[in-house]
Design goal:
Blueprint lengths: L1 H13 L3 H9 L1 H17 L9 E5 L8 H9 L5 E5 L10 E4 L8 H4 L1 H9 L4 E4 L3 H10 L4 E5 L10 E5 L24 E4 L5 E8 L5 E5 L16 E4 L8 H11 L3 E5 H7 L6 E10 L1 H7 L1
Helix pairs in contact: 6-9
Length: 296
């Protein structure tokens, strides 16, 4: 039931049917009220200067946009970056240092899937999860980091930063609840908007390929993967940040008579310890050098 609702909402936000469009128009008064309140919240905030370069990477809509590979690419340009994120889906609370400059300090259930991606892909980074970004920024400074990259923090208007936003294509341009927009790009807000295949490109690597691979993924809007997929014998979509159990994955292998499960890195960090045959669809990005010069 939960999974069906999640996918219905994703369709409603990004590729609405006729009835879903009617519903979105019916909810427009609530959207206008929501957007007005969010704008007032923005105007009432005063940005605190932490005396360190801070860049937030995200998007204005709910759902996935590919920000994790972009943050990873930007973080790789530095000797000691700090990656700070909320840690959605983790089994912990408060501020947790997932990784210092030398080693990973916790498991994926404590860190959350996205934080563990950064910890594994950026060996020189400090990775911190915290619902409140401010103490995490202070912690990163104490640990000697040279730059802070905030994962999905456009709405944190009380932090002085440069916002990098990934443009997301959608047929529904309304604010919540009529559409997917959590917030608008306010006219006096400093931000850099990046477009895929213009400012950055995807680099996809298939590792440990087998003859009969079955796709298993728990990312937002999983149809985004379709253009990168090799031939697979099945597709199994779970809600974003789903916590897998070994038995459900074994059942998929058996039902599809698959020789391996094809997963993204976001899924891989959660299930690598299960000892199941895995193939990895590793999605990274290459950022245009002109954009890097503009940001840094």
């Amino acid at each position: 039931m939960k999974k069906s609702l999640v996918f219905w909402v994703e369709e409603y936000f990004y590729n609405p049917s006729f009835l879903q469009k009617l519903l979105s128009y019916f909810l427009l008064p609530l959207s206008w009220l929501y957007c007005f309140v969010i704008y007032l919240r923005y105007r009432l905030k005063r940005a605190e200067d932490f005396k360190i370069k801070i860049i937030s990477v995200g998007n204005l809509t709910v759902g996935g946009s590919g920000k994790t590979p972009l943050v990873t690419a930007l973080g790789a340009a530095f000797k000691k970056p700090a990656i700070i994120l909320r840690g959605y889906g983790r089994d912990s609370k408060g501020l947790v240092v997932v990784k210092d400059a030398k080693e990973i300090l916790c498991n994926v259930s404590v860190s959350g899937d996205e934080a563990m991606i950064y910890a594994k892909k950026l060996p020189n980074s400090v990775v911190i999860v915290s619902e409140d970004r401010k103490p995490a920024i202070k912690k990163a400074k104490e640990m000697g980091c040279e730059i802070v990259l905030l994962d999905d923090a456009y709405s944190k208007h009380d932090i002085k930063k440069l916002d990098v936003l990934i443009a997301v294509v959608t047929k529904n341009n309304f604010c919540l609840p009529s559409g997917p927009y959590r917030e608008r790009l306010w006219s006096d807000k400093e931000a850099v908007v990046l477009q895929e295949d213009v400012d950055f490109t995807r680099v996809v690597t298939l590792k440990e390929q087998t003859q009969r691979m079955s796709l298993v993924t728990a990312i937002a809007r999983p149809s985004r993967l379709d253009k990168y997929l090799p031939k697979v014998v099945g597709k199994h979509y779970f809600e974003d940040h789903h916590s897998f159990i070994k038995e459900e994955l074994q059942a998929i292998l058996e039902a599809d008579n698959a020789t391996s499960l094809l997963v993204t890195f976001k899924d891989y960090v959660k299930i690598e310890s299960f000892g199941l045959p895995l193939s990895l669809l590793d999605l990274e990005v290459k950022v245009d050098t002109n954009i890097l010069d503009r940001l840094f």
